[in-house]
Amino acid sequence: MRLAIVCYPTHGGSGAVASDLAIGMADAGHEVHVVSYAVPFRLRRFHPGVRLHEVEIASYPLFRYPPYTLGLATKLAEVASEGGFDIIHAHYAVPNAVSAFLAREIIGDGRTRVVTTLHGTDITLVGADKSFDRVIRFALERSDAVTAVSDYLADRTQRDFAPHVPVEVIPNFVDTELPAPGPERYAREAWAPGGERILMHISNFRPVKRISDVVRVFAEVRRQLPAKLVLVGEGPERLFAQQLVRELDLSADVVFLGQQDDIRGPLACADLLLLPSEQESFGLTALEAMVSRVPVIATTIGGLPEVVTDGEAGRLFPVGEVRGMAAEAVRLLIDEPARQAMGDAGRTRAITHFAREVVLPRYEDLYRRVMAGARPATVR
Length: 380
Ligand code: GMT
Description:
Blueprint: E1 2-6, H1 13-27, E2 31-36, E3 50-54, H2 68-80, E4 87-91, H3 93-107, E5 113-118, H4 121-124, H5 133-142, E6 145-148, H6 151-160, E7 167-169, H7 184-191, E8 197-203, H8 211-224, E9 227-233, H9 238-247, E10 254-258, H10 264-267, E11 272-275, H11 284-291, E12 296-299, H12 304-307, E13 314-317, H13 322-334, H14 336-354, H15 356-371
Parallel strand pairs: 1-2, 1-4, 2-3, 4-5, 5-6, 6-7, 8-9, 8-11, 9-10, 11-12, 12-13
Helix pairs in contact: 2-3, 3-5, 8-13, 11-14, 14-15
Bound molecules: ligand GMT.
Ligand GMT is lined by residues 12-14, 17, 119-121, 124, 149, 172, 204, 206, 208, 279-284.
């Protein structure tokens, strides 16, 4: 197959999954072209078989906003002129699915199919802006297939946008092979020289991640036992988090690590992952923690219960339930056998349900069905 994968290049779940899909499809022998406005962070290393195309938009004084949607469509059509595409797979509705639709119309060969994968914020946040309503619905209706990364997101999509559009659930996936030990051997010692327990949070520091809950849970844990908090990522709430850490007099016990391309290294040092989000269609970092045998303390919202089964791979609490999360964190950090058992159960669950080898064939099967002209019925 000749595939085009369109995604955001920035650190975030949708770009990570799209990149891993590109690598997996290339490994399976397909010709894969990844199109974005920069090289996606997971594709900065060389992967034979994955060809990269960067969209550049010429700036012109007349343009108040650079026309990225058009630039992306044009780039797709241009790459297609060298042999066409069987599938253009757009990750994220806005504007990627719209550009994919435009590209298919421009190419006009009657062969190109568009698959759109919804990741969450395109429906729950961007979609909540009423001005995008119609264009998102249009993009979904005109896609040859639409997938969502969880049952929760599929339901929300059908309820809020397009009840008549079939949405197939294909969950996110991870590489379950753990890398050989690297610098984390020294990191653990550097962050927790006294053998303190390490709590970790990984995100893009947006308001939905509730960084203040992360810091408050940690403050409560820290009151009860020696512990350190490592915050991985970058984003608009970082300054606020730094300020809160200072206010709560926790500076000596909190490390702001910044953005990391590969989070498996930091995760190898973690005893617990905190993910107290108020929105999460899936929660890829929770899954990455599970693979690394790190129990997850998260919320009951969105698709998280489909990933982190409560009591098995971690513990789930209502949004804002800081005291409950802290109490459970302390319990697990004191009871090492219970913490390890939960970590092992999380890894087993990740391997069984969300391994790359388990999920990738489902995309391949979908591509084949779509190429055969069958528009999929809702599959859960
Ligand atoms: O969480 C974000 O703000 C980033 C966003 C993205 O596009 O990467 O994440 C969404 O997609 C991920 C991959 O499917 C999911 O794991 C995240 O749960 C989802 N974020 C939200 O729903 C808030």
